[in-house]
């Protein structure tokens, strides 16, 4: 099974207000396989994650467009309970943390530019070193097709595979507002969702598909490798808004597949991850995923 590591950008709506979230996610235990008939043990996982966005400069041009600078701070701690062979293939815990600066600026009536630069620690909790620090940056040119659809493309640079390398970057944001709102988002990963506000304080969202993941620089047989985990999930998420600054949310759904890939931290390792068609990456089967958390603004 093939998975791609996405370089992520913040959605532009976050650049104009100080806001963040803290959440706890639980994954029930499921079997790990390499092919449909194989067995590589089993494993579950929990995640504690948080993010906070700090606007530095905001100049509004109209209701939806602005020139802005912002800082984002994020952190994820994952603890895995692996059994059998899966315990040797996966680290016991992972830390993903980052600090990024983001700039958004209109170029014309239809075009915007979105740029980001940042870095952070991506490693098993017991293997943090200077080699665990990964940096990335990118520039995307965004074209506003209409009030609902924005498309963009650009390029970025990352040292995830050792030497700095350039990678293409894509941006897609589509939303349809009304009593029932729909959204397709490729700005912080991949997410397709539909939502409605049942009453003033209560909001309900259904997400049939969301893709996210974790990355770590880890040692395998004395060599630095890139460990990546990609997760495909669906869930129902109720939210209750206590005040304009505090919202409680929950999620219940399934994590349909949790794929694992380990590759050499080199340019050759990057290209081998795409060219080795005979390689089967291990994966965890479907599992229950439960989440709870808070959203806040200051």
Low-confidence stretches: 1-12
Give the H and E element order. EEEHEEEEEEEEEEHEE
Category from helices, strands and their pairing: mainly beta
Count, helices: 2
- Backbone CA Rg: 20 Å
Would you report the number of β strands?
Answer: 15
Main sheet record: 15 strands, antiparallel
**Count of discrete domains:** 1
Task: Report the span from N to C terminus.
Answer: 42 Å
According to CATH, the fold-level topology is Porin
CATH architecture label name: Beta Barrel
Q: Report mean pLDDT, rounded to a whole number.
A: 86
Report the β-strand fraction as a percent range: over 45%
Helix content: under 10%
What overall form do the CA principal axes indicate? globular
Report on the architecture of this protein.
- About 5% of the residues lie in helices and about 65% in strands.
- With about 300 residues, the protein is mainly beta.
- The chain has a single domain, classed as Porin (Beta Barrel), CATH 2.40.160.
- It has a 15-stranded antiparallel beta sheet that branches.
- The radius of gyration is 20 Å and the shape is globular.
What topology emerges from the helices and strands here?
Elements: E1 19-33, E2 42-60, E3 66-83, H1 86-89, E4 93-106, E5 111-124, E6 133-144, E7 149-158, E8 165-176, E9 180-185, E10 190-197, E11 202-220, E12 223-243, E13 246-264, H2 267-275, E14 283-284, E15 287-297
Antiparallel strand pairs: 1-2, 1-14, 1-15, 2-3, 3-4, 4-5, 5-6, 6-7, 7-8, 8-9, 9-10, 10-11, 11-12, 12-13, 13-14, 13-15
